[in-house]
Amino acid sequence: MKKRLGKEIRSLRKQQQITQQDLSSSNVTQATISKIESGEHAPNIETLYLIAERLNVSIEHFFPLLKFDQPDYVNQTIEYMEKLSNGHEYKKVFQVAERELSKPEYTFSNDWFSSFLRWNYWYAAYRIAAVPKEEAERNLSALFEQLKASREHLENLPARITNSLAIMKSEEGKLNESLKLFEQALQSLSLPTYKSPARAAHIYQLRLIYNQAKTYYDLGEFKKAKSSVYRGQALSKRYENMSLLGQFFYYEGQCLEQENAEVEKIARCYEQALFFFEFLDKTYYADLLKKQKGAYLTL
User: Fold this and answer.
1) What angle do CA 93, 213, 78 make, to 5 degrees?
2) pTM passes above 0.90
3) Which domains does the chain have, with CATH numbers?
4) Which tens digits make up the pLDDT trace of 169-186?
5) pLDDT tens digits, one per residue of 48-58
6) Which domain of life is it from (predicted)?
């Protein structure tokens, strides 16, 4: 896999008449590019994404080459889809899942990866309105029951699917049903030693708590929302994970606004939220925060 991938990167670079130094950046050194092209080093998904951008090709261009090493291919695909989901790029998530599921090896498979693909396919289909909400909900529920019947946690996929169903209920206005599903997901979440950051159960726990806090806020239960926010902040520190701190600080600010707290205290929450959004390159959230809470950020 590494030699084939390196050869393709080298070929694209030469076609465009750029040097290894031109291809490098502050995150990818010229020495690293050299090792990748020679097959000595396999790039992670972030590095491959940067290289693809500089070569003016989609990252999917390299996926067929990764298939020569199936574990690497599966992990790269999972990480890429997680990155797209976190950036709300659901159309791309849908396209990747659809492409993968069309392959014969996944058509009738019930392993973790094929279940992961089906979950992403139906949730992304709902988000981009590719199918009616009822159809997406029905298929996600069926996938949940299938996994539940297997009596295996499958790295918490059932909890993830329940989280998606809870979000759909919340957006439908069925907030109490949504909260029950979030609680069900939290109760079923197992916290074993994880295999990769993209599938870490304790990190996904933070996402569930964030969604729970958001739903409490939407219900007008600001005290409970704030309690969930503080729980999420505490666990983020405990796990040494920053991935959702921006969202937690944002909703702390939202709750404080509803409680008519001191303006400086509210502004501090939004400033902290913006710091984490920008630090983690969460442009979608940073832009939204600036648009909605700009008055607090200029104090």
Assistant:
1) 25
2) no
3) 1-68 (1.10.260.40)
4) 999 999 999 999 999 999
5) 778 888 888 87
6) Bacteria
